[in-house]
Amino acid sequence: MAEYIGRFAPSPSGRLHFGSLVAALGSYAVAKHKNGKILLRIEDLDFFRCKKEYTSIILKELDEFGFVFDGEPYIQSEHTDVYYRVAKKLVEEDKAFYCNCTRSHLKTGVCHCREKGLKENAQDNLALRFIIPSTHQNSFEDEIYGVISSPVTVDALTLIRRDKVISYNLACVVDDIHQGVTQVVRGSDLIDITTTQMCLYNALDTECISYLHLPLAMADETYKLSKQNRSPAVLDQGPPSQMLIKALAFLNQDISGLNPQMTPKVILNKALDNFEIQKIPVGKKVIEA
């Protein structure tokens, strides 16, 4: 059996919020529970939203929580040549095409750019779009949820935007393959893109990995905790030990032997000894203040 390799992949568009901590803790605990490795990846390709200063802040905050990742952090912006190389390969194999449609036009569901045969030109604002094959999977098995039906609802997926930002889906799949990730543990807000990402795995002649989606931390019944929703930084809500215990409780783990006076590393070690994957709840949970 191949060695288990997981990853935590935050974007430096702000400080860690409680949902970020849940994702970090969940991916870390599952990897350690399975005697595997846990990698840290910084997904900073969207240069409009991501700031370098937040990368160093996130690294510092993760250290304050006691997380010890395997190897050095993998910074996506330092590897853009890899994504462009894969994108070019998909074009050469007629699995992707250049597109000059605006976002508003794409919303109409009509795009004839594939038939136009547009060529790459540095002067043109062309996006690159991946062709979703007509024969693709509409479901996958999640370790917590079981079989999830999630039909792909588009016939093409943007790989590189017109403003030349490399898409999350392309970079995510390429990096998971490159880093040998065997299971992705992430928030359940990303369930719907899973089958779309599986199409990319198939296009790159790589076997799909497994998935485990964590419960989604909600500010209320409507809004998830996220940087885009300006959720408060988790370390502004309480000290590391206190927030770790709160995140463990959110994941329905036993916290009876833990207290905020313990150091984060002691809490993590004790939690890992008693971590039970089958106890992780599904769906969404509103966070109580």
From TrEMBL:
It comes from Succinivibrio dextrinosolvens DSM 3072. NCBIfam families: PRK05710.1-3. GO terms for molecular function: ATP binding; glutamate-tRNA ligase activity. Keywords: Aminoacyl-tRNA synthetase, ATP-binding, Ligase, Metal-binding, Nucleotide-binding, Protein biosynthesis, Zinc. GO terms for cellular component: cytosol. The lineage of its organism: Bacteria, Pseudomonadati, Pseudomonadota, Gammaproteobacteria, Aeromonadales. Coiled coil: none annotated. SUPFAM superfamilies: Nucleotidylyl transferase. Pfam families: tRNA-synt_1c (PF00749). PANTHER family: GLUTAMATE--TRNA LIGASE, GLUTAMYL-Q TRNA(ASP) SYNTHETASE. InterPro entries: Glu/Gln-tRNA-synth, Glu/Gln-tRNA-synth_Ib_cat-dom, GluQ/Sye, Rossmann-like_a/b/a_fold. This is Glutamyl-Q tRNA(Asp) synthetase. Belongs to the class-I aminoacyl-tRNA synthetase family. Residues 7-256 form the Glutamyl/glutaminyl-tRNA synthetase class Ib catalytic domain. One of its GO terms (biological process) is glutamyl-tRNA aminoacylation.
